[in-house]
Amino acid sequence: MTNPDILITGATVAADLTERGADLAAAPTVDLRISGGRIVERAAAGTLVAAEGERVIDATGLVAMTGLVDLHTHLREPGFEQSETVLTGTRAAAAGGFTTVFAMANTMPVQDTAGVVEQVQSLGDAAGYATVRPIGAVTEDLAGERLSEIGAMAQSRAAVRVFSDDGKCVHDSLLMRRALEYVKTFDGVVAQHAQDPRLTEGAQMNEGALSSELGLKGWPAVAEESIIARDVLLAEHIGARLHICHLSTAGSVEVVRWAKARGVQVTAEVTPHHLILTDEKARSYDPRYKVNPPLRRDEDVRALRVAVADGVIDIIATDHAPHPAESKECEWGAAAFGMVGLESALPIALLALVNEGHTSWAELERLLSQKPAEIGRLEGHPASLEVDQVADLVLIDPGASSVFSVADLKGMSHNSPFLDMELPGRVAYTVRRGYLTLDNGELVSAPAVAAAAQEATR
Ligand SMILES: [Zn+2]
Question: Cα of 361 to ligand 1 centre, how many Å?
């Protein structure tokens, strides 16, 4: 049984929409035929004729882009299966239009050996909803004391290329230097969670007038900016690749801008929530808004959007951080940091960037698909929706609008800050390796996806 061919008719291709604020109705449309896991034909809309047994998707009014890639997902398995598993997390990914997720290392046991990263990758392969690329820990057990088995993870079946202690900062300068030296030997990258631990001891929200007013301990911007400044200098000194996780302040943008102008090999990400929410949300004392790094001031949000528009920020990454209800339904000080984000990333990006004229659809494809794949050295990711490319793609209805609800959350946890918000756009179809994982807004069943995935790798 081979996976059925798919004919997509009348789609608007994101890569053709290079102008900010472009009129979608005026754009050309295409038909795409998918067979054997690849795009095999592409022609002007109305040209390709459905064959016997072929699945036909009418994509009139839908925008097609290469499958989304999240460089920063917490899948929680092994060890925290009450929050998320590889299966449930990749279901959330498929629902959000993602075809690949990079899984952060702060599992239990930590992803700091070849054995654990191979286990996580295998769980992803078996589930089939998305390609799972494990991230390796920089230090053993994320303890910040000794380097982990970076070389063994790089050479393992999981071929790890991204290393991060995310959740914790690699604070020791010498360890950071050694990690950069090590990953340079195989073109890997260190993804830094920039947070000076001493400056943020007990910190609960952005430091400022509001934190004093609310009586919550402040988290100063400089705790992030000082680590980024040190690390771009280290990366320059070593000549290695450095990636900065979840930039959250205007000052961080200026440091990265300066480093890029010097030619430092640094890339930066921003989360959807830091592009739209401010520290004012803490006034509610609702722990759904408690996140690391914290929500910042309005001027930071504006600076982050401008940084995306002018290319200082390279990618959007979700920092999808599921937590069970008991970790969030408590007082602010006791609550866990983090928000789920896979299902809402695309609508928030439309709201904060495309609909505001900060980016074009083609730029959005760079931010959410092409560039994260490039930073993570993801193999087999399609460069475009041209013939011969792997059929990892997403179809989006840009005109749709709906109130985001718990029913839209397909992972195990419901700690989204966007519940009850009116959000634009709808992810309608997700295709991975030529088979559907999301079909007209509904997840394809787990057994069907697992079988299709097995078939696709034969
Ligand atoms: Zn982090």
Answer: 27
pTM: 0.98
For strands 266-270 and 63-66, give the pairing. unpaired
* Residue 166 alpha carbon to ligand 1 centre in Å: 5
Please enumerate in sequence order all residues whose Cβ is within 8 A of that of 154, keeping only pairs 6 or more positions apart, or say none: 136, 160, 161, 183, 186, 188
Q: How far is 402 from 408, CA to CA, in rounded Å? A: 10
Rounded CA gap, 368 and 66, in Å? 9
- Of all residues in the chain, the percent with pLDDT exceeding 90 is 98
Mean pLDDT, to the nearest integer, of 230-248? 98
For ion ligand 1, residues whose CB falls within 5 Å: 166, 193, 245
Distance 72 CA to ligand 1 centre (A): 8
Write the CB contacts of 210 (distance below 8 Å, at least 6 apart in sequence): 279, 280, 282, 283
Q: How large is the greatest C-alpha to C-alpha distance in the chain, in angstroms?
A: 68
pLDDT in tens, 242-288: 999 999 999 999 999 999 999 999 999 999 999 999 999 999 999 99
- Which superfamily is assigned to 6-64+387-456 in CATH? Urease, subunit C, domain 1 (2.30.40.10)
The backbone region for 377, taken as left when phi is positive above 0, alpha when psi lies in -120 to 50, beta otherwise, is left
Distance between CA atoms of residues 328 and 154, nearest Å: 36
Residue whose token pair is 């959250």: 248
pLDDT digits (tens, 9 = 90+) for 305-330: 999 999 999 999 999 999 999 999 99
Q: Which of 166, 319, 392, 408 is catalytic?
A: 319
- Taking the centre of ligand 1 as the mean of its atom positions, its distance from the CA of residue 454, in whole angstroms, is 33
What is the residue extent of each domain of the chain?
A: 6-64+387-456, 66-375
- The alpha carbon of 416 is separated from its chain's Cα centroid by a whole number of angstroms, namely 15
Measure CA 225 to chain center: 22
Distances (CA, A) of 102 to 121, 191, 253, 382: 10, 12, 24, 16
392 class by beta-carbon count within 10 Å (0-12 exposed, 13-18 middle, 19+ buried): buried
Q: Binning pLDDT at 50, 70 and 90, where does residue 115 land? A: very high
Distance 20 CA to ligand 1 centre (A): 30
Q: Is 187 a catalytic residue?
A: no
Query: Selecting from 2.60.40.1840, 3.30.70.1230, 3.20.20.140, 3.40.190.10, what CATH number does the domain 66-375 have?
Result: 3.20.20.140
